[in-house]
Design brief:
The complex is a heterodimer of chains A (about 260) and B (about 300). In chain A, helix 5 (about 145-155) runs parallel beside helix 6 (about 175-190). Chain A is built from ten helices and ten strands. Chain A has helices spanning about 50-55, 80-85, 100-115, 120-130, 145-155, 175-190, 205-210, 225-230, 240-255, 260; strands at about 5-15, 20-35, 35-40, 65-70, 70, 85-90, 165, 195-200, 210-215, 220-225. Chain B has about 300 residues and is mostly helical. The longest helix of chain B has about 35 residues, at about 95-130. The chains are: A alpha/beta (about 260), B mainly alpha (about 300).
Chain lengths: ~260, ~300
Amino acid sequence: MTPNMIEIEKLNLTFGHGPQANHVLRDVSFAVKDGESFGLVGESGSGKTTVLRCLAGQYTHWSGEMRIDGKALEHKLDRARCRHVQMVFQDPYGSLHPRHTVETALTEPMAIHGIGERQERIGSILAKVGLNDSYRFRYPHQLSGGQRQRVAIARALILEPRILLLDEPTSALDVSVQAEILNLLADLRQRDGLTYLLVTHDLGVVAHLCDRVAVMQQGEILETLATSDLAGSSPKNAYTRMLVDASREYSRKQEIPETVLLA
Amino acid sequence: MTPELSPAIAASVPQQNGQPQSRGAALRQNLQRSLRRLTHNPMTVAGLIVVAMLLLVALFAPWIATHDPLAQDLNNTLKAPDAAHWFGTDEYGRDVFSRLVHGSRITLYVISLVTVIVGPVGLAVGTISGYFGGKVDTVFMRITDIFISFPSLVLALAFVAALGPGLDHAVMAIALTAWPPIARLARAETLQLRKADFVVAVQLQGASSTRIIVRHIVPMCLSSVVIRLTMNMAGIILTAAGLGFLGLGALPPMPEWGAMISTGRRYMLECWWLVAMPGVAIMLVSLAFNLLGDGLRDVLDPRSE
């Protein structure tokens, strides 16, 4: 039995006070095993990205309990957590500093954490994400969307985290590049034994990358099930079934055979 | 753990020509591109030439000037422009051309001193206020509001009146009234930036606030601040000349352009060159800084990329 890498219990988050308070997360609980890839799906505004941002340390006023590798998380972000948990953002056009070269972007986390052998590490991490050394001194505007996302992944991985939080890592990319990035992520997980927590609204991505998946709606987790059950008839919850049906409907209109979607 | 890649995930990378091979090369390429865009606009080039000439004249003033700017020659007062005195002489027989040339040093001194004070102060106040928000923002912005609510020339007048006239006091007075717009500009930029993904990304990597402001936010604000400062230079020249004209800036023997107009005013109807020459100099230089600022905006503004 593999131990749990991420444990979240009764996570609650509210923005605002008094009558205007917006209860974004309601008693969210789930656990992700070491080396597992876990998906969070749901419509826009269902709170899936918010869960990630709580875990990553961007929001600090949550209540409940979150544990990583058995250790309870403080509300304030500390450096140890940064080396354990890193995040890849949805939009590679916004997540890289427009005036920093690839090298500067990758050096920055190492400078913050005082890690040595920077040149070697940059070289090996670039190779790992499938970019050669000629990309080292380019600015983001000299890269394509897929290349930018590779740089963003490299930046997240350079601190050698155990957990990678993926916030719709492919939704801002065009379809041909999506597959490349998904394969890269699958490859990296296999090689380094990373734990993924993936947020998406694309069930095809979940099917490709995740072992288990939780369905969220309006800040609550409706059900948690294995990805293989998603395609079958076993989803108990009506909303989950609707979500699956919607993605099939969509794929038929696009004339993509179902086998490709759930490949 | 090998850096080997399966062919499926290895990005097909066509080798491109002119790819930067080092940090310096990347920077140089960037600068070259900016310079090419800067020189694309003829108005900007005109502004750039005038500013470059101002710098050269100020640098080589003793060699360019034909006479001592302070030497009086009472036998040759109020002479019209001729071969010996290109721009004529003033009421004490001093050569107007030489005084203009030496005056460029004073103008540059005022501009650069004000800019050096105003730029960093405005940038620091604006970015700190915008990044931290909340109470910090309220306190800093109310202080800024107090300074911005005074008409700048009036505040400068009061300041100089209290400390006594003099060039350094004029510089301080101008600096005191010139930083709030810069701070507001930097704050507005920072407010947009602090929620940006690339800032959140470094926050999640554990960077300190100082590091984020200095290394990630300031470089993004810098371009608009530089543009604003360049545009401000025209205003600084005019304010300095205005203070000089009112007798509160540079003190009499100094060949400050505004002060030259002020003393030439009495002879204006008979001796047009006393007012026209420094007037043209002030106009040319402030126009040049405006044009340069416009050109810089085209090159540096991130929104135009």
